[in-house]
Give the backbone structure.
Amino acid sequence: MAAGGYYDIDTILSEEIRVPCVFTLDAVGMGVLDPTTSDEDLSQGAKVDFPLWMARPLAGKGMVNLDLPKHYTDRFREQLEAGPGAVNLRERCPFYYEVGVVLASLMGDQRLQDTLLMVFSGERFKRLLDCSLNSLNEDVNSFTRDLPNLEKSLFNAGYRSSEEYVGWKSRAFNKLATSKVIQGKVKRQKL
């Protein structure tokens, strides 16, 4: 899913986002998966929300059809296309882009991919870049509070870069020093 890999906490958390699924066949003995039913079996057409890590292989085997969560539907996409900067994506899904890309890929939904790209690379990205590079010594918590995980990590990278640039420009980094990584290796070799 994400580039972080198997042990990446963000990847694990994004895989926990629940996705609505509809069974395409009778699921014998699987009634425990649906908390709203007391039946032992799930019949064809039963709707259950599964975490993404479970929905992906079930959809791949044709056991379920995926439905889009509300924050990826056509109606919500129209709101995003009208004004993506005004929508709080974190409130809908903290891993909005990561989950959206996986769902678009699984469902073959090119329009969802296009919408995600438009939202990410448009007005929101410009605002994020501007704020991250020009907000030193300002309180940015109100801005970052509403950012989904991917946008927040980009903001933090831009903010750190801006801090380092200001430090370099003011000659705070004019003295060369040995890297902490190298210092650690030298100490280990002496033992």
In short: The first helix runs from residue 9 to 15.
